[in-house]
Amino acid sequence: MSLQWEVVGKSKKNQGKSKNVPGNDLNGETTTTKTPVVRKIDESGKKGNRKDNKENRKAPQESAKKPKSEAKVAANPEKGKKPVKKKFKNLEAALQELSVDDLKSHVEVFKANFKNSNIAWLKAILSYLNEALIVDVDAVFLCKPILYPASALPTTLKKLIHDELDAAGASNVQYFFDQCLTSLAVDLNKNLPVVGTRIMLQLIALRFPIVCQSNFAKNAVLHNSYLNQSSIGLSLLWALGQGGYQDCQVGINVWQNMMVPVIEMKHYCKYAVEYIFYILQKAPSNTSLKLTLQEYLNLMDTLMQTRNNIPHNIRNLLPESAFMISKLYIESTKNVSNIFLTLFKNLSTDSPNVYLFTLVQCLKTEPNCVKLWELNYKKLHQQHQILLNYIRDSKHGTSLKGNKPINDFLRTIDPNLVREEVNHVKNRHQGESKAKQQNTQEKTTSKRAEKSSKSSSICPWILGVFVLLGAIGGIIAYDVHVHGGQFEASSTGKFLKDTGALPYVETVWFTSLSYTARGYQWAEMNVPIFYGKARTALTPYCEFGCELATVLWNKVKQGFSSGCSFVQEKSPVVGNFVDQYIPGLSQRVGDATRATWGTISRLSVDYYHFGCEFFRTKVFVGSLSPENLSKALNETQVVAARYYSWFHDKVDAYAKIK
């Protein structure tokens, strides 16, 4: 069979020669190309002809085609490679190389081919941006400004996109927005570039915020489909939440419907908690929230609910968001009185502080709320007390006290609140003046402190010297007393005598005694004179001080008596007021007070008599009897008189020494 295939091959070769133009080069080429085929056939024939006829037919054809294909690839190596798209380091670098003019021409081509088709034109912009902006970005653009990447776009590019969106109309924009959401999820799942899709979604949401809340059911289904893929899920929430930065009402609706269901999930909690806080923080002061009272209460319950799965560092953002929503809600609604009455009736000790804050905002916004409080505080005593305590203790409540209608009402129910506020204002002004004085005094006190520190460092040394001298004098006196009162016989005297210093010490000692005695005599003669003069000069001041003390004491007694009379006057009123809520309480308190006072008086009298009897029978007997005590007193007087005369004799003797 192999020989027959060779013959057939040769005949085809000859036929080819007859058809082609004769030439040595061409014949040479054909022979060289066919030679390897014959060798392959011979080799295959030697192996036992294992291949069938079809395989043998394909072998020479494939061998003939291979050189041609290799020649084509070698001739055109660039045609076999696909162009690689450039990937940028960040979005800013990609936007620098983006040509808005090229984008305009690209859109003009689509406008010429697809007339009156705004969706096609928007898709052209979308595809161009996705191809031009190939960047790896985070799902929610962490560590970037809130309105990023729209804030980084060139003005001309934003104007071009805004013009096309405005020309498309609301219905087309809504349809295109929903398509972009779906393509965002699909392209992210396929790992395709989606930066252009993100930019288009953000610009649409900021231009038309209402599109973010038009299809919650469809968007929820789309989000649940990619719930386990956190990058896709966060990207969808990010796109839907962009409208909230332009319209706070839209942001709250998106948060309630799309983010609250996943707020306790690990990958979504941080973005969901920070989103509601940031949109409220960015909202202008004149923002109007269109919420019913029930929707507001449901929203507060959602925000104030305990959620242990949320990290501690962001958990407090939810209560802060509740306070901000309450403030915006009260400032934008008209039925403030109805809100106040409903919240006031349902108030309890378990109510969150945000409801008390809302009541305070109602009182500040609507004067009629004060009248409602005044009409209902007797019936709703517990609620009244809770609100009153909040106003007294909370920083939000203290801001109410400058309001005149509220001050008038508070003065009737609790005058101390108004007095404390007046005192607070006075103290604040006084504090400002004192702060200025303190600044000037600090400089002088610093110098005084330096001097006092030096003097205080000297004082311990002086005290130590006196203590040391006293200790030495005590030791010497004890030594003299042990040796019979003779200084020369004492150990100190012997030491001084051996050293030869005893005469000098005696001279110094007697000289000091002489001058001390003379000083004492001078003081005994002149001190009474100076004392009389000082007494004469200070007597008017002492009398004035006594009179002032008498006046102050009379004022204290008068104030005490006024307080007692006030208590006696108001006690029946207070008792009647208390009896309205707890009948018989005042009578029970009075009986208990009288019984307690009677018991204390009886015990005091009993203990007084017991003490007198104890001292009479147990203490003042024997050596402590009145007779012995009088004898001891007389003897003490005699000894004191003797010592005084002895002291005078010594003074006179030492005063005569020269």
Question: What does this protein look like?
Answer:
This protein has 658 residues and is an all-alpha fold. Among the domains are: 87-266, no CATH class; 284-422, no CATH class; 487-565; 625-657. The chain has 27 helices and no strands.
The chain-level structural class is: mainly alpha
Helicity, in percent?
A: over 70%
Gross morphology is elongated
Number of strands: 0
Structure annotation, total helices: 27
Q: List segments where confidence is low: pLDDT < 50 over at least 5 consecutive residues.
A: 9-82, 418-426
Question: Which labels suit this protein?
Answer:
single chain, 658 residues, mainly alpha, 77% helix, 0% strand, elongated
Q: What is shown here, in short?
A:
Critical mediator, in cooperation with CASP4, of endoplasmic reticulum-stress induced apoptosis. Required or the activation of CASP4 following endoplasmic reticulum stress. With 658 residues, this protein is mainly alpha-helical.
